[in-house]
Amino acid sequence: MRIAVVGTGVIGASWATLFLSHGHRVVASDPAPGAEDRLRAAVAADQRRLSFTPDLAEAVADAEFVQENGPERPELKDRLFAVLDAAAPPGTVLASSSSGLAPSRIQRACPAHPERVLVGHPFNPPHLIPLVEVVPGGRTSEAAVEQAMDFYRSLGRRPIRLRQELPGHVANRLQAALWREAYSLVERGAASVADIDTAIAHGPGLRWALLGPFLNQHLSGGPGGIAHVLEHLGPPMEEWWADLGSPRLTPELARAITDGVRDELAGAAVADLVAERDALLSLLLDAKNRTDHL
Predict the structure, then answer these.
(1) In what order do the strands lie in the sheet containing 117-122?
(2) Which of 35, 206, 230, 264 has a CA between 20 and 30 Å from the CA of residue 74?
(3) Are the beta carbons of 284 and 209 closer than 8 angstroms?
(4) What is the rounded CA–CA span in Å between residue 99 and residue 122?
């Protein structure tokens, strides 16, 4: 399959790695000086099936799927998708990795074939994290949605389909809810940055890596499952909700968080942490893939 990767920054390079590792041909395009060299340095896969052109129309002319990864600027997306709409074959899905722009907004730049435009939002790095959020716009066809879902599944991804267009989609909104309370706890002085990270990384985060919030609640309810949890812990949980904070990202709070992260790192190299994180992610994903339900 011939796949066009538009924009070859961190996300685009990771997508290219994934596509190449599954035997697809990749044509990448990025107008930035030195983009091809940076892409080839980042891609840890067989590059014989990787080609590059700064000409966007040329890159998508024969593409069977397009994954766009440009900056989150509406006016730039408009220019990109105007070219994609005109140059890509009519039946080719145009998927944007956008984490912030609604697909209906992106479709405005595609008067010829808005029905094949959607969001295919990954989590960084896409070649490791299986989740892809597929978000159709108001004019996206059911055929395009199914084609995208099937394509991402063929890559070993775990796509979910959103039924509404929401700022931040689903997973980023769930993350934002946790960050909101984490920032509030720092602002209140209730816990340090390091202690909050420890609480998640060595507590519920371990279970969250295996099952989502609802199934984790269900398993914690014993024979009664989630119904038992909601009956007995629902009222106190509502009290906790009422006490959750609504912090503002003031300069003082931003400084406290930045200082807290610096202290937590204690001189550790970020590159080493990233390498350890990705190695453990690979081990976890391999283990999950050997189970029947996870």
Answers:
(1) 50-52, 25-29, 2-6, 65-68, 93-96, 117-122, 131-136, 158-161
(2) 35
(3) yes
(4) 8
Tally of CB atoms within 10 A around 3: 24
The Cα–Cα gap between 186 and 6 comes to 39
pTM of the predicted protein model: 0.93
Please state which of the four CATH numbers 1.10.1040.10, 3.50.50.60, 3.40.50.720, 3.90.1720.10 is assigned to the domain occupying 171-210+248-289.
1.10.1040.10
Element (H, E) at 230: helix 225-243
pLDDT band at 294 (very low <50, low <70, confident <90, very high): confident
The DSSP symbol for 290 reads T
How big is the chain by its Cα radius of gyration, in Å? 21
List Cβ neighbours of 125 (8 Å cut-off, separation of 6 or more): 10, 11, 14, 278
**Cis before residue 125, ω within 30 degrees of 0?**
yes
Q: Band of the pLDDT at 44, cuts 50, 70, 90?
A: confident
CA–CA dist 254, 246 (Å, integer): 15
DSSP assignment string, 242-262: HH-------HHHHHHHHHHHH
With CA atoms as reference, report the closest residue to 132 among 89, 166, 98, 84: 98
d(CA 17, CA 129) in angstroms, rounded, equals 13
- As its CATH architecture, domain 2-161 has 3-Layer(aba) Sandwich (3.40)
